[in-house]
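Let us practice reading a record.
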Amino acid sequence: MKLLLINGANLNMLGMREPDKYGKTTLKEIETKVISRGKMLGVTVDVFQSNHEGDIVDKIQKLAKEGYDGLMINAGGFTHTSIVIRDAIAAANILAVEIHMTNIHAREEFRHHSYLSSVCIGQVVGFKEMSYILALEGLVDYLKTKKA
């Protein structure tokens, strides 16, 4: 099983950006933990980060061609603004889980709406870096159950 983890705009600033909300763990540290946990679960996890919406769309459009079974995505602020990322996930016809380190439903009103949630099988919010591990475990379990 091969999965892709996509991180969107400003997530490359984790560890420095608003540590009261996002903690002090860097994106690289999170990616390393997810890749390691993936190996323990018997899956390959690749990672991709971009601050550019079009790069994220391009990557999503290539998922099937590159042999991915599933997608985990923390689109950051694009969650609340990007219909094109939502449409790319829908067009890719791939199982996806939406990730947020904070509880977007308990934050500013503009963060309450996600354009991505309607094309994802689930959403993990509010557990800081653990949100990534929970998303990985949920997606792997879902894919294994689906294939059984």
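A brief commentary: The first strand starts at residue 2 and ends at 7.
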